[in-house]
Amino acid sequence: MSETRRKMTPRVERPRVAELEAMLGVPIPVLDHGFVRVIDYMGDDGAIVQAARVSYGRGTKTPSADEALIRYLMRHRHTSPFEMCEIKLHVKLPIFVARQWIRHRTANVNEYSARYSILSREFYVPDPAHIAAQSETNRQGRDVHPLAPEEAEAARRLIAESAERAFVTYFTLLNEREDGETLDYSRSGIARELARVTLPLSTYTEWYWKIDLHNLFHFLALRADPHAQYEIRAYAEAIGGSVARWVPMAWRAFVDYRLDAVTLSGPAMAVLRRWLAGETVTEEESGLGRREWRELCTFFRKNIHKD
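Structure (tokenized):
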């Protein structure tokens, strides 16, 4: 492009969010060795509004009207305007958390490769407050009450000792020290892609993760939920703090209509209507499964339904 034409081309300023700009590249600590940091982003609340109105201009409506539109979009699940915003994160996380996280297949991911590089001796050891027995009601989670302090400390010690032994084996197989120097010049080490098989799921990995706001909200709705595993929930909460600074209007709508909201099935709505009419409804009469009935009662009994 010629210099004259370049000068004639109107410059389009990208939206910048001051609060998020100040956070770029700054690690937010998560767990014992992990972090989340914002690398880059595209769009803001205005981009959502702009896409919804399919107009070029910005600032054609008042902030209150913009927020009302965003709340309407969230409430009625008009999702495509939220896809106009994207964010790129650098995340350091234990492998077992990464395996849960990667189930969200709507993002672009590039992970640290242990085939090319040597992993650092960093692994996750949970705090005593987060060490609990298997839940008796949730087959895939831990009990809400932690173990006694001495039991929790014993478990921590076993987890740490097991990981330490695995890393000793890892570096022995590589025939390398952590600084890259050779351990024993009389023998060869095995390939990194093989040596890594000895390492535990608590080992830390890193990746760059880029996702649009609609799919990020779906991730957060699942992983910031109180029923999610604590470790991935800690990352979701750290990300949520960044999103609240990036798109505050959209975040408030997300909290109100997704995080703090309850979705009811048709039969559950029928039970609720009968409760509001002053009727008594038993589990057998409700037509609900046992779990759905328990969830409905847990949420509403304190506020609406009185026996």
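The longest strand covers residues 34-42. The chain is about 45% helix and 15% strand.
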